[in-house]
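Tokenised fold entry reproduced for everyone:
>
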Amino acid sequence: MTGTMRAAVLNALGKPLEICDLPIPEPGPGEVLVRIAASGVCHTDLSVMDGEWTMKKPRLPLIPGHEATGYIAGLGSGVTTHKEGDRVGVYWLSSACGACDDCAGGRESLCLRQQGLGYDRNGTYAEYCVVSADFAVPLPDGPLEKLAPVMCAGVTSYRGLKEMNLRPGSWVVVYGAGGTGHLGIQYAKAMGYKVIAIDIEAEKVAQAAALGADMTIHCEREFPVNKILHHTGGAHGVLATAPAAKALEQSVRMLRRGGTCILIGIPKEPLPLNVFDMVIKGLNVRGSLIGTRGDLREALALVSEGRVTPLVESRSLDDVNETIGALRTRQIKGRAVLRMM
């Protein structure tokens, strides 16, 4: 396909994005061109744009974004799994090797040869992007803006909850009720758990209650660890989405013996953990990056069934820097989504 597209481009770490006209990319062998309809704005995008990740700085210029929905607009050679016009979603994994132990063992998000969308290659803050055909995931019916947050926030929270390996009726805490957490609350309820939601903002606490949380805690007004230990005897699992060391430290302390804390939020400061308590109580504390394509299909199905509803604030691509600013200052109540169509 010839022509140009509009895109938000990162030309320098820590600087605002620039709206540019760029050539529409061509899909290579085994790849597809996706016409982006809606792209979520994720905290991970902010970390990439700020150069916070110590493992590797992104190569600039770069188009950020990794949480989007749209339509197949072009096929590279050898692609038979899609046709032009198909509705698809794209997410962090734009490709993986498919042959390593992690890929073979159902952990493709840990593949060392993966390519991260909006990190290793240009992402979804644009009218078009290219991904491996195998990682363009077919979508169910429904508004594309509503489905976009499932491609990262949704599947990340869903995978974290699965990794707890709990029985229905277990007490699960979702610490942080924002873009990822508000979906985690709903997925936890759909999986049959009793849910406690914690946030630092009164409006998000009220939102969590409206989404079905069995108990809510405004952590600026009351100490969540004591309340949860008193009410439940300790949580069976905690999904820690808040990117603050204090929140993550409390997440571990509110577990019962043998409980599991899944870390999703990444704080800038070191995480203080009481190793003695972890050993004596047999606690499990682990990180969870993102789900697999199988997890994504399951997460999308729960949205299609009406059991999970993403809360979306729709913005124009022209407003991308204002949207990023709103996310930094915690003004987004659900998930911010950039419209491309």
The two ends are 18 Å apart (CA to CA).
